């Protein structure tokens, strides 16, 4: 049994306890033969009951129990639901960013490098979510079909509360898994239809019909929103212990007068699982996607809908007044170390577990600090950071000096990117990326270690981590699954399109208000009362450009840019990745722009493919145009 479980869980991180993506950055589930699905599910569910007493099972492989055993064993039943958590699609590493104009990688075998340079195909797609998401949905469908039969507690009212919460989780998770399927595989077909994926809401088995056509994108959205509504009816907004008076009325009506019963089901110890607040944020993400240029012609979701769904989330923290002051540096020591178990900082809506690790630093510190320098920010991204006075570097009022390109820049540049001459690591070592550098930190000094662009990544990493094999000092990290900043930016984007820069649509804040608050937090435009922002407040097109740029900066290296460029249908997808060569022939530094990587995306790649093997197997599956 140990060997079987090891194979199924081999992708779990030993350092963080979370499930770790493969080299392509995706958590890949094992392909499941549905003839054996029943036995595999039993094995996985039973994992939660194991307590180290392997000697009780002889031979272990024979101890396979019927699925209906879950009805009297709630821990067993929760094991089914747990697999949807195991298969969550989030990654704490900046994988897809190296396929955009924000970064390149020095790992020439990297799957995303191959995508960006012309090797993306329907049978070679590291971005595929097809198998893992559908596997997760299968587990959720099994759980939802059987949950009402489970005796969650001998107390009937407590059992009802458990059933409500767990079904609410399952509906919310199914909406999330479907969203990621649409993100990766939804698209327009050659005959002009916007399709999603086959909608499956019942468990599949060996007798199921797997040759199903794709539902329309809108039908998939309808199913997602239906699941979200069911989830919100059943889930608490947040988990946490309450007093007797705070027990929700619907449970008081059933006879719950003792808060300890409610807290047993929805108390502090449940933090980290999906909640009503998280589901509302997922709804805002889905609405933004559906209203975006690449999809809007095939959906009935408007920019106004997207803005209002984001506003629902933001109103719960009093709009822009609730914006986290340190939200832009949520990954730093001061923000992570004080966190109690399951508690979120003000910036975070949903996060992964905190774990001790140094993987990010091993992969991305400069080589002089025993890192591999994998993710190299581009000059394209560096140029996107404005001057500290808020003006773009191309605007004469910004006073940009090409001979001193990092002077008087947006403070986020120094927070997120290691530039030539800045410091990094536990001892604040000076990093020289210029050609005059004396070690492998210098640009293109050594393949597979040195930067290709003249920059290294700083964001996400703990400077007090030490990958030196003598020490291997780990520090606390977590994956930020959904941040409030993302939802603020979603609101700004949608509100600007729906009502213009200063319109509110009945809400209490505008796109302008959001951008001003974000830049105020970053220290941009503060000393001149946001002069540049004020100058464009009545120009919807210029505000759109600024909002997209703010999204680029605030969410860089968090796996958003690739999907944003595609939903916007903009030409940046094929923008050549650039860097800078810094020479020092005398006492003065000379900055020489260099082209680093030519990108080769085709027009049809604004939408991903249905896996080639699936289209070959199932005649009713229609491929997206171009693939």
Labels describing this entry:
single chain; 627 residues; mainly alpha; two-stranded antiparallel ribbon; 21 helices; 14 strands; globular; disordered N terminus
Give me a quick take on this structure:
It is built from 21 helices and 14 strands. By secondary structure, it is mainly alpha-helical.
Overall shape: it is: globular
Strand ordering within the main sheet? 1-6
Q: What structural class do the secondary elements suggest?
A: mainly alpha
Mean pLDDT: 91
Radius of gyration, in Å, reads 25 Å
The helicity comes to 25-40%
Please give the count of helices.
Answer: 21
Low-pLDDT parts are 1-62
Q: β content, as a range?
A: 5-15%
Distance between the termini: 42 Å
Tell me about the biggest sheet? 2 strands, antiparallel
Total number of β-strand segments?
A: 14
Describe the model.
With 627 residues, the chain is mostly helical. Helices cover 37% and strands 7% of the residues. It contains 21 helices and 14 strands. The strands form seven sheets. A two-stranded antiparallel ribbon has the order 1-6. Strands 2-3 form a two-stranded antiparallel sheet. A two-stranded antiparallel sheet has the order 4-12. Strand 13 (577-583) and strand 14 (590-597) form a beta hairpin. The radius of gyration is 25 Å and the shape is globular. Mean pLDDT is 91; it is low at 1-62.
């Amino acid at each position: 049994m140990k060997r079987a479980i090891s194979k199924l869980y081999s992708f779990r991180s030993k350092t963080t306890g979370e499930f770790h993506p493969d080299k392509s950055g995706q958590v890949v589930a094992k392909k499941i033969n549905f003839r054996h699905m029943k036995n595999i599910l039993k094995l996985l569910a039973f994992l939660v009951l194991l307590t180290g007493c392997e000697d009780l099972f002889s031979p272990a492989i024979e101890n396979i129990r019927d699925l209906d055993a879950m009805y009297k064993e709630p821990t067993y039943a929760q094991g089914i639901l747990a697999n949807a958590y195991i298969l969550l699609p989030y990654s704490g590493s900046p994988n897809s960013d190296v396929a955009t104009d924000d970064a390149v990688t020095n790992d020439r075998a990297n799957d995303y490098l191959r995508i960006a340079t012309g090797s993306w195909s329907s049978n070679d797609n590291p971005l595929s979510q097809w198998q893992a998401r559908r596997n997760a949905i299968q587990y959720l469908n099994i759980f939802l079909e059987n949950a009402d039969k489970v005796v969650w507690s001998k107390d009937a009212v407590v059992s009802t509360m458990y059933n409500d919460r767990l079904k609410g989780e399952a509906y919310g998770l199914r909406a999330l898994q479907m969203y990621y399927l649409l993100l990766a595989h939804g698209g327009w077909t050659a005959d002009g239809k916007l399709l999603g994926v086959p909608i499956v809401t019942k468990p599949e088995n060996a007798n199921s019909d797997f040759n199903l056509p794709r539902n329309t994108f809108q039908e998939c959205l309808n199913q997602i929103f239906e699941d979200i509504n069911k989830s919100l009816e059943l889930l608490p907004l947040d988990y946490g212990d309450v007093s007797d008076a705070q027990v929700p009325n619907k449970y008081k009506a059933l006879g719950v007068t003792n808060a300890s019963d409610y807290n047993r089901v929805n108390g502090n110890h449940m933090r980290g699982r999906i909640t009503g607040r998280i589901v509302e944020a997922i709804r805002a993400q889905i609405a933004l996607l559906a209203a975006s240029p690449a999809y809007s012609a095939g959906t009935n979701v408007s920019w106004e809908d997207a803005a209002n769904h984001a506003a629902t989330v933001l109103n719960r923290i009093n709009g822009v007044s609730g914006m986290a002051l340190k939200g832009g540096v949520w990954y730093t020591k001061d923000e992570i170390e004080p966190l109690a178990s399951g508690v979120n900082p003000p910036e975070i809506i949903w996060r992964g577990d905190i774990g001790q690790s140094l993987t990010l630093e091993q992969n991305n510190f400069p080589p002089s600090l025993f890192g591999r320098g994998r993710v190299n920010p581009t000059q394209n991204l560096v140029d996107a950071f404005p001057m500290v006075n808020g003006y773009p570097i191309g605007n004469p009022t910004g006073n940009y000096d090409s001979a001193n390109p990092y002077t008087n820049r947006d403070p986020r540049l120094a927070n997120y990117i290691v530039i030539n001459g800045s410091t990094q690591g536990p001892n604040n070592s000076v990093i020289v990326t210029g050609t005059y550098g004396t070690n492998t930190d210098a640009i293109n000094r050594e393949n597979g270690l040195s930067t290709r662009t003249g920059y290294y990544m700083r964001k996400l990493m703990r400077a007090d981590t030490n990958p030196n094999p003598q020490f291997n000092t780990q520090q606390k990290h977590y994956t930020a699954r959904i941040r409030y900043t993302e939802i603020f930016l979603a609101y700004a984007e949608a509100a600007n399109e729906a009502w213009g820069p200063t319109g509110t649509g009945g809400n209490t804040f505008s796109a302008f208000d959001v951008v001003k608050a974000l830049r105020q937090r970053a220290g941009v435009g503060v000393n001149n009362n946001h002069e540049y922002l004020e100058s464009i407040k009545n120009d919807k097109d210029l505000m759109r450009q600024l909002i997209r740029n703010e999204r680029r900066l605030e969410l860089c290296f968090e796996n958003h840019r690739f999907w944003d460029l595609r939903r916007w249908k903009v030409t940046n997808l094929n923008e050549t990745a650039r860097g800078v060569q810094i020479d020092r022939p005398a006492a003065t530094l000379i900055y020489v722009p260099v082209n680093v990587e030519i990108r080769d995306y085709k027009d049809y790649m604004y939408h991903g493919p249905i896996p080639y093997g699936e289209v070959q197997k199932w005649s009713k599956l229609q491929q997206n145009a171009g693939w």
